[in-house]
Amino acid sequence: MKITLACAGGMSTGMLVKKMEEYASSQGIEADISACGLSELEERVAGSDIILLGPQVGYQQDDVKREYPEIPVLVIEMMDYGMMNGEKVFKKAQEIISAN
């Protein structure tokens, strides 16, 4: 499973990636989770099962969906992002990947 997070610069999502990796590891789930700035998405998105957008770039969701129509795109909930709730964000991503 490959999950790509994108935000304005990739810094704040980097912390969330660590929390998501910790949860996946605790569940015995192998996952490739990475963060990048929205401007780097094109270079990093190949093979992704889902693209998660930080709330601060959520307004670009439609553009990202148009750019990558074959990959589900989700804006991370503001509360989950602020609390760095890696478990909840990971579970939501899993749910969407399974549904597609």
TrEMBL record:
Keywords: Kinase, Phosphoprotein, Phosphotransferase system, Sugar transport, Transferase, Transport. Residues 1-100 form the PTS EIIB type-3 domain. Signal peptide: none annotated. One of its GO terms (biological process) is phosphoenolpyruvate-dependent sugar phosphotransferase system. GO terms for molecular function: kinase activity; protein-N(PI)-phosphohistidine-sugar phosphotransferase activity. PROSITE patterns: PTS_EIIB_TYPE_3. SUPFAM superfamilies: PTS system IIB component-like (SSF52794). The modification Phosphocysteine is found at C7. PANTHER family: PTS SYSTEM N,N'-DIACETYLCHITOBIOSE-SPECIFIC EIIB COMPONENT. This is PTS sugar transporter subunit IIB.
